[in-house]
Amino acid sequence: MKKAVIFLNGDPPRKSEIKCEELTDSLKICADGAYRYVKKICVPDVVLGDFDSIAAEKIDKRCRKIRFKPEKDFTDGHLALQYALDEGATEIVIYGALGGRPDMAYANLSLLYQAKTGGAKAEIRGGGYTVTLENGAFEKSVNKGACVSMAPFFEGAHIISTKGLKYPMKNVTLNRLHISLSVSNVALADSFAVESEGELLLFTENIQRRTDK
After folding, report:
1. What predicted TM-score, i.e. pTM, was given to this entire model?
2. Please, what are the domains in the chain?
3. E strands along 101-199, which residues?
4. What pLDDT, in 10s, does the model give residues 156-168?
């Protein structure tokens, strides 16, 4: 099972969000301007993009550099994730996808679906939260008291039932008008379970991350 770590040019990850073993055992891909913070964390294997945010000559010579034309049809995040898939990655962690430009943060959520259609499982980490794309029945480990929110990835998703959340949900259809029904729930223990239908964005908070920088 090949792993990849992608660094995007949004808000840099907190120290506690990065697991050292992931950096050691994973393909490390950096998108363009993210190199400004990544160089303090590790030497990426690949830096790609149109290099409009940082000059290519400022990048460590040990990194492979892949340049794209500025007039491209895809974001650097899309290109970075596709590179990971092409290299055979089946587990992908994405940093720097949130914060910064709101339109880019919104677009970066689609990377989770891009990974799924490419046969990989991806997660976004940032700001003390982990974002994943779920479907069907699943169980998640969290810290007791952590915030848990859900939203439909497409037009709608159906929550059949939940267990282990302060505000239980049963037979609830989420759509663009009723996303608030599943925002800011609370984990009652160190795990919770959801049975659902449709692509569901899951936002889980690690409460230990609130005060670190």
Report:
1. 0.90
2. 2-127 (3.40.50.10240), 133-209 (3.40.50.10240)
3. 121-126, 129-134, 137-141, 147-152, 156-163, 170-175, 185-186, 191-197
4. 999 999 999 999 9
